[in-house]
Design a protein that fits this description.
324 residues; alpha+beta; two-stranded antiparallel ribbon; 14 helices; 10% strand
Length: 324
């Protein structure tokens, strides 16, 4: 690579002008791009969060990159932010083997191991919870049967103002489903026809993994109702389309609950494994951790039945005893 170009790329990189790097390097005909140019182009794509394009560049120089720890780091970085954690682990492992003093690769290798292990545990947990769900549903004829919903909702002035709507008509349900692009679960519709959105008394759901909210649970502020009139309704001002389009949440389903973090994490219906007309799982999505997904429940009804009161996680008395 030309010395002047190398210096200019280094300055742009330092200044965060990554699009400038892409623009100037794409002017070079593909047949004239050497290892350094392609590597710099891939790095710029990574820094622009265009990880698929970065990965494509690094794969072009895979043969030359096998003995270069920086190549392994950069392609591992692409894999990591594409959530391909097994491949990221392999790449960072090679980087550390070639350069044992590379602390960045070692740190990302550990994170990749942790996330790959979480995915395996989630897969096992998903199968077990589905089996348990199927067994329990076989004993119930209708959604929320034998569950007392009379004390479920906390109808404070705030909840009534921000969340609660009139029961949805079939026409409104169809209209909202069309706007969202997903068929809403029967159990969610059944609950909303009884009480369309609101704040439950029990606002916590236990987890086996830590999130940005807590070590052992996630919390919700409210459940979005079917409609558009309240800001915290599915298609309202701060509803699912807004959170996906403006906050960057993954377009894999429907945001159904907001959380106390004021937008930095949400609860979603996840349609990746069932299709847009199937029975979605319930997940927690953590914007603070690269939109990390934590599996919660195999379906909406199981999620609602699993909510517990925040007092379950109140450790203030234990903390006082430890301080004595």
């Amino acid at each position: 690579m030309d010395t002047n170009l190398t210096a200019q790329l280094a300055k742009w990189h330092e200044d965060g002008e990554h699009q400038q790097i892409v623009d100037i390097l794409l002017e070079i005909p593909p047949g004239e791009r050497d290892y350094g140019i392609i590597s710099s182009l891939g790095r710029a794509y990574n820094n622009l969060e265009r990880y698929e394009e970065g990965l494509e560049q690094f794969q072009l120089i895979a043969g030359e990159g096998q003995r270069d720890p920086l190549w392994h780091f950069r392609i591992g970085y692409s894999y990591y932010y594409l959530k391909r954690y097994e491949e990221a682990s392999q790449a960072f492992g090679h980087a550390v083997a070639l350069d044992p003093d590379d602390g960045d690769s070692a740190r990302l290798l550990e994170w990749s191991w942790q996330k790959a292990a979480k995915e395996k545990l989630t897969s096992m947990r998903r199968e077990l919870s589905r089996q348990r769900r199927d067994s329990e549903q076989a004993e119930r004829a209708v959604p929320f049967e034998v569950m007392d919903l009379s004390a479920f909702w906390d109808d404070s002035d705030y909840a009534l103002k921000e969340y609660v709507l009139e029961p949805p008509s079939d026409q409104l349900i169809a209209s909202v489903e069309e706007e969202l692009g997903y068929k809403l679960p029967a159990s969610y519709i059944a609950l909303m026809k009884q009480h369309n959105g609101g704040v439950p008394y029990n606002t916590c759901f236990p987890t086996e993994e830590a999130t940005s909210w807590a070590e052992d649970h996630v919390a919700i502020t409210g459940i979005m109702g079917i409609g558009r009139d309240k800001q915290y309704s599915l298609c309202g001002e701060l509803g699912s389309p807004f959170m996906i389009e403006e906050w960057g949440y993954p377009d894999i389903g429907v945001v159904i609950c907001d959380c106390p973090s004021a937008g930095h994490d949400v609860i979603m219906l996840d349609y990746r494994y069932c299709g847009k007309d199937g029975e979605p799982e319930v997940i927690h999505v953590d914007q603070e951790d690269n939109y990390e997904i934590t599996y919660l429940a195999p379906d909406f009804e199981t999620f609602i039945r699993g909510l517990v009161n925040e007092e379950v996680f109140d450790t203030s008395e234990e903390d006082k005893e430890e301080d004595i």
